[in-house]
Structures are given as C-alpha cells and as structure tokens.
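FAQ
Q: What does a multi-component entry look like?
A: The components come first, one per line:
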Amino acid sequence: MASCFSNAPCLTPTNGAAPLAYATALQYFAAAQCFLTHNLLPEAKLKNHDTFDFIVVGAGSAGSVVASRLSENKNYNVLLIEAGGDAPLESDIPGFVGSLYESDYDWKYHTENDGRTSQAIINGTVGWNKGKMFGGSSSMNSMYYVRGDDQDYQTWYDQGNKEWSVDEVKRCFKKSENLLDKERLSNPKISEFYGHDGPLNVNRFNSTFNEYIAKILEAWEEIGFRNVPDLNIENVNTSGYLLASATGGVRQSTSKAYVIPAEKRSNLKILKHSLVTKVLINKKNKKTEGVEVEKGGKKYVFYTKREVIVSAGSVASPQLLMLSGVGNADHLSEKGITPIVHSPNVGQNVQDHAVVPIFIFSDEPNESSLPEKYLSYVDYLVTRAGPLAHDDIGTDASAFYTTVEGATYPNIQTILVVYPKNTPGLKEGFSHSFRYNDTIMDDIVELNKDHGIYLFVLNLLHPVSRGHISLKSKNPHDAPLIYANYLSDETDVETIVKALKMSSKIVDTEYFKSINAFLGRMNIPACNELELDSDEYWRCVSINVVSTLWHPVRSCMMGTDISNSVVDSRLRVHGVKGLRVVDASVIPSTTSGNTNAPTIMIGERGSELILEDNNY
Ligand SMILES: Cc1cc2nc3c(=O)[nH]c(=O)nc-3n(C[C@H](O)[C@H](O)[C@H](O)COP(=O)(O)OP(=O)(O)OC[C@H]3O[C@@H](n4cnc5c(N)ncnc54)[C@H](O)[C@@H]3O)c2cc1C
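Then the predicted structure of the entire assembly, as tokens:
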C-alpha cells in the first residue's frame, strides 16, 4: 500500500478491469469539478462612444451590488466594466483560496518599506492582495461575514453622514442577506436579526477542525471571552463561530449573488478584461461625461447620460480619481496631470486593520495522511464537506474583546487558525499571506514537524495610525504607492501589546496544558534577547511583523465637505457632477470586524441613494 502512495508501480497482475474502473472513476471525479462553476458571464459587444445611463467601474464587493440594483429598473441602461475576468474554479472552492494570492487574479499590491515596521516581513513590504476578477476581493477573501458594531455606524452618523443611521444600515444589511445557518434560524432572536430573502447566502463553514475549535472555545471562556451563539449580536469579550459568505461548501461572491442572476437583463452590459484609465470630466462645468477604457490593446470611450460610479476598491478608486484630475492639485501637477478639482483628501487618511500573531505549539492536531487528504478532495465533490469546504488559512472561530476596562465596544478581534503537525506548504502559504521572512518561517516549519500550531491572529479593530496612497506616475498601469504607516501612533502599539498579553494567557488554560502547549518565540533577531511574553517582547514583535487583514478603508472617505473628505454622505464626489464612489474606500471610520459585509451594505445603500437622486 505504502509503495502505491510513493509513486512506485503496482506489480500485481491485472486483466485491465480494475485499472479501467479506477481510471473511469478518476475521470468522473475530475469532470465533477465543472458542476461547481457557473458558465462564463456574457460579454457585451459595444461600439466606441456608446452611451449609458450609468457606468459602474469595478465588479467587486460593492460594484456588483450597484450594477445589479441599478439594472433592476428596465428604463436605465447600465454598463459594468471590470479589469479582470470570470473568477476561476479555485475561487468557488474555499480550501483553494490561498492559490489565488499573488496569482493573475490578484492585483498584487505591496506597501512601501518604511524602514521601521514590518522589517521581519519579506522585503519589509506588506502584501495588499486584492481580487482582480468578477466579485473583486469577495472572490478571494476569507469569507468571514461580520457586520460590525452599532457604535461603528452611530459614529458615521454623528460625523454628519445623515444617510447612514444605525437603522438604515441594519435595513441594508438585511436587504442583502439570506441566512441559511440552521442553528441560527432555529433561534427566533437570532433569526430575526438577519435578512432571509436577500441575494447573498450566508451560512456556517462546515469546518473539519470543529473538534479542536470546541476546545479552543472552552479555553477562551476560561480567560473571560464568553461563548455566544452569534458574534454579530454580541461582540464584546465574547467568542464563537463566525458566519461566512459561503454555503454548501461553496463561496458566495457578490458576482455569484448579484451579477450572475442579472446577467440576462438586456439593459445590463458587461465588459471583462477592461481597464478604466480615466473618468472624463468637463474642465469648465466639472460635469462627468464618461470613461476612457483599455481593452485588448485598444482604447474606447463610453459616455454617460447620468452618472459614473467608481467601485474600484480602496486602492484603485483614489488612483482613478487622481488620474482623472481629482486630487491634491500639487501632487497631480507634479505627476504631469492637469488638476480639475483640488480635493486634498483623495488617497489620504487610510485606515487598515493591522494584525500581529501569537503562535502556540502543542501535541495537537495530528497530521492527516496522504490517502486521507486525497479522499477528502473526492469527498468534497460529492458532499461539499471536508477541508476544501472552508477557508484554507483560517477557522470560523473568533473572539472580540476590549483592552479598555468596562468598555462596551470591542477594539480587538482574534481569528483562530489551525495547522496540524507537518502541514504541507506551510512556508509557501505564509510567503503569500503574512509574508514572514525565512528566519521566522524556517523555525516554525521545523517546530511544526512534531507540533500542531494554534495561531491566533490579533486584529487591531480601530487603529489611530493613518496611511496614504499616492500616484507613482500618470501611467494607469503603474500601481500606486501605498504608505500603510502601521503602528505609527503609540496608542496603537500600547493597545496591541495589551491585547497580546490578554490573549497569550490562553496557553495556561486546562486544554492547552493537557496538550503540552507552549508559546512560540518568533525568531526575530531584534527581539530574541527580550523576555518571552513581556511587554517589551510583544512591542518588538508587533513593530517587526505587523501586517494586514486586507481591510484598507477611508481613501475616498465620506464627510461633510471637501476639506475633510472626498465624497458627501450621498457618496457624490465633492466638486464634480455625476460622479460617485461606492466601495470600501468611502468608509469614514473602520468597522469592528472584517469589511466585506459592510462594503456590500454600502453597495445596497449607495444604490438606493443613486436611484433616489435620479427620480426613481
Ligand atoms: C485576501 C483577502 C481576505 C479578506 N478576507 C475577508 C474576510 O474574510 N471577510 C471580510 O469581511 N472581508 C475580507 N476581506 C476584505 C473584503 O473582501 C474587502 O473589504 C471588500 O471586498 C472590498 O470591496 P470593494 O468593492 O471596495 O473592492 P473590491 O472587491 O476589491 O472590488 C474592486 C473591483 O474593481 C476592479 N477594478 C479596479 N480598478 C479598476 C479599473 N481601473 N477598471 C476596471 N476595474 C477595476 C477590481 O478588479 C475589482 O474587481 C479580505 C480581502 C482580501 C483581499
């Protein structure tokens, strides 16, 4: 048996029946992958200078929602333009999400090396991966479905964004949701909290690590993070299972939820592999006229009768505004772009969820054998369960808590990641996600040979530090420069150090003691002399390995006027007529958790505002 799995030939005589049966079975299962995917989206045949009521730039988490909602009205012609193409099979299967990082389906943005933080990360640059395909980042994210806290949206409202009251926001979350988790549906209070007939299916992952997660939940309870049935309802000093934008073991991107069901509408035209290089704004009357597009080496112009909606995400939306003449006038002139509207906040004030890890090594979980692994691949095709049915870098267990005594609002989220002993591809996986350097990873891989790893990823929910995004050049193919500025404000360092010390206590709980767990020291020369688990140690680790949870926001933030923001609370670009931004970049202060659900909600609310303003 062992020889069969080490590629040695099978020496037993055969009359051909058995190999044929197995070859046919393998062919059947190989073909069964196709049942997972949808046919390719239809692409419109357009003529240069065609005109539309609305042009939506970017078919990501928000753009897909906007194009779908606007085209529900048959009187409006809508053009949806996406730089990428159809999402690949690996996007549908949650367990293959890691293969999308740094692939052709990723914009592969990297932050600039600031010479101070993240120096134990490859090249000192943090990977700001972003989906380049239909569904955008919702086609390559980890699928955690987290709404955030009421207080987040109350803050938006209190900042003068009157269209975003807690009630309106909740209504729009519900409008998008179709809750399918049986356990939550059976609890009237939880069931009532969610929507039931929206386009986006939300459910629980069917995690293969449930046996271990149950023990971690007990350990969290022991250190004061109470287990609760729903983390969207109770999120201060609590722990439990997250919902996911996935169901039946398959990802639910916004393309799947919103664009595919609308693809046959005659008033919705779709362009793939088409890069919008500029929004055309009349210099005199500041009115938006259309967009310039590059597709297959050719240039096109499409015009709008009403509005252009930029939904290109937190990096590309400010880039596109700047390329179009909307931004800091000095910066634009320096890059050889004629300023049309001096809008100093474009690309400024960026807030991102910064993360720092705790590695705990222990006797569990044991590695799975090669036959088990391959059987699970086949099993997935039949049952949609097993390791491929959940995100490959995380579990759905999470805790939310506060480092501030008595606070009713979380400032930290921890996500649990489990690596069984001898996890194949561990180093490669990290080189695409958190990008720790070889010095760190070689030690971790060595320890992983005999120890399972419980990795706790701590997410600083409300960082005070701010980054910015600026143009490298006026060439739309040049990625913009990203200055993340993580932990540049001392308050953030203090919060994360406190949180790491609160969380590392888990190693002393009953379960962890029973599996001989110990806190791992990350091999960072600058920190190696410091006492493990001391404030100084965590401070040093935080500065050296701080990375991202891929949640940048605020680069085109909403607010009351051009001096403090880029768009108004109806998401109209200040100083320009007929131009809006609708995506994560408009978030005025970040939310208490992962940002996909809030961005979809913004897509819903943004569509309503556009329709209202166009007399619908
Ligand atoms: C690796 C990763 C993991 C994450 N995990 C989670 C998670 O588990 N849960 C969660 O809630 N959030 C998660 N997020 C964050 C979440 O996915 C994002 O906040 C959200 O998708 C942002 O949506 P958006 O519409 O602003 O941008 P995107 O979804 O990125 O969409 C922008 C779209 O615009 C297109 N585009 C850009 N420029 C142009 C142009 N010039 N012309 C035409 N098209 C263009 C892009 O190709 C893309 O399709 C994750 C993100 C990443 C990248």
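Q: Is there any commentary attached?
A: Sometimes. For this entry: The mean pLDDT is 95.
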